[in-house]
Amino acid sequence: MRNLKTVLILVFLVILIVSLSSCSRYKYEGKDVSSIEYTAVDYNGGYTRETRVDLIDCQVLKREFLPSDNIIEEYSIVYNFEISSIDSFLDEVGEAGLFDLKDNYPSPGGIADGGGWTLTIYYVDGTSKVSTGDNNYPNDVFKKADYAFYNLYGDDLFETLPRSYTNPPSIDIAFDYSIGSNHYSQGYSGLSAINYTWNKSVVSDVDVIAYAIQNPLHEFDSSHIYKFVLWTKNYKYRFSKMIITSFDLKGNDRKEIDNTGWFNQKEYSLEFNRIYVIKMTFPYGTCEYAFSTVVE
Predict the structure, then answer these.
(1) Would you place residue 165 in the very low, low, confident or very high pLDDT band (cuts 50, 70, 90)?
(2) Which domains does the chain have, with CATH numbers?
(3) How far apart are CA 15 and CA 98, in angstroms?
(4) From residue 129, how far is each of 31, 58, 256 by CA, in Å?
């Protein structure tokens, strides 16, 4: 009998926890929103960026301009989204506090230097809510809302998300060589991904062979023997797999140089007039990097 009571109590507690969990989930129940518009004006030069999230036509529109522009272009559509995503989007930004912002966020010390931001929420009934700020803004609210906005269409509305979340990582490499007893090393930080899938971003149509030839990273001297070095000390995300291949300058004669997992540092011998392609798989996607060893 005692065991039965214990089981019943445990079942009741599980039901209670599930019930409380579902009840605590935020649900936006405010007025129907027709659009959300955000305008950011840079302090240096007044460069203006405007973004409109149109919840009626399910599209995101943008435009950018300078105060000196004689003609301000119309909004251009940068993304279309599914109507089914709107409710969850409103729930997320509502829970973040986007609909409860103050009317104005004054600058500390009253400093105003020609820039700022304006957020306008338009409702279906024709009313609107406007919030503004100069050197001050609700960072926590904007950041939480940006995650929801990024999940909706792949960009951050308020530009608060970490670059590593919205953009594929760059990698660091170096080319080592010796002249007599002297050792030399030329390092290159920030080798950008050419083709990648990273969260919501996808680039897959760049010809890596042509790109590597047209964008030389280093000037090689055929009288030296080179090695290239990869190191991972500054990587924010660990890759689970890396494949290095090389090709001739026409994209033929494929050779696999390495196929490995995470490491701290590795070095490889180089051949001249080859294209080297590095493909890495990270938690947020797969990135492809390339460089050439063209010599005159």
Answers:
(1) confident
(2) 33-161 (3.30.1560), 171-292 (no CATH)
(3) 32
(4) 11, 20, 59
Helix (H) or strand (E) holding 189: strand 182-191
Residue type, 226: Y
- In single-letter form, the type of residue at position 116 comes to G
Q: What is the pTM of this model?
A: 0.69
Supply the pLDDT for residue 3. 58
CA neighbours closer than 13 Å in the CB half-sphere of residue 46: 5
- Check residue 187 and give its pLDDT: 93
Q: How far is residue 177's CA from residue 154's CA, in Å, rounded to a whole number?
A: 42
Q: Output the six-digit token pair for 224.
A: 């030296």
Q: What is the DSSP string of 153-177?
A: HSS-SSS-S-HHHHSPPPEEEEEEE
> What's the order of all strands across the beta sheet hosting 201-203?
201-203, 195-198, 285-292, 274-282, 241-248, 255-260
CA–CA separation, 254 vs 75, rounded Å? 46
Q: Which residues of 234-260 are buried (b: 16+ CB within 10 A; e: fewer)?
A: ebeeebeebebbbbebeeeeeeebeee
Q: Could you give the CA distance from residue 262 to residue 288 in angstroms, rounded to a whole number?
A: 16
What 3-state class would DSSP assign to 92?
A: helix
4, β-bridge pairs: none
Q: Give the chain's count of helices (H) and strands (E).
A: 5, 17
Roughly what angle, to the nearest 10 degrees, separates helices 139-153 and 86-96?
170
